Amino acid sequence: LAEQIDPQTGRPLSVAPLAWSHAEVVRVITAYFERDSELSRQSKTSGQSDAKPAAAAGRVAGKQIFKTARTARLL
To answer: Which DSSP letter does residue 3 get?
Structure first.
């Protein structure tokens, strides 16, 4: 993940891989799966279908994240 963009070409520009950027991606994906698991458990105890928790997990801690587990797994 590059931190900057070259103004002439629009290509990603970075001196070296930024560990904090990669760590943020990992943190968001981890938060997504934790929330998805929580929603799955809640739906099982309330008798709802498992089909909705992944779609409902669009927000975790106020940050927009991946809308489906499949998208997160592609990273």
So the answer is: S
Query: CA dihedral in degrees (42, 44, 47, 50; nearest 10)?
Result: 100
Q: Residue 68 belongs to what domain range? A: 4-73
68 closest CA partner among 26, 29, 21:
29
Q: CA distances (Å), 44 to each of 32, 33, 60, 62, in order? A: 18, 16, 20, 24
Query: What is the pLDDT tens value at each position of the chain, 75 positions in all?
Result: 456 777 888 887 766 666 667 777 888 899 999 999 999 988 888 776 545 544 444 554 444 454 444 454 444
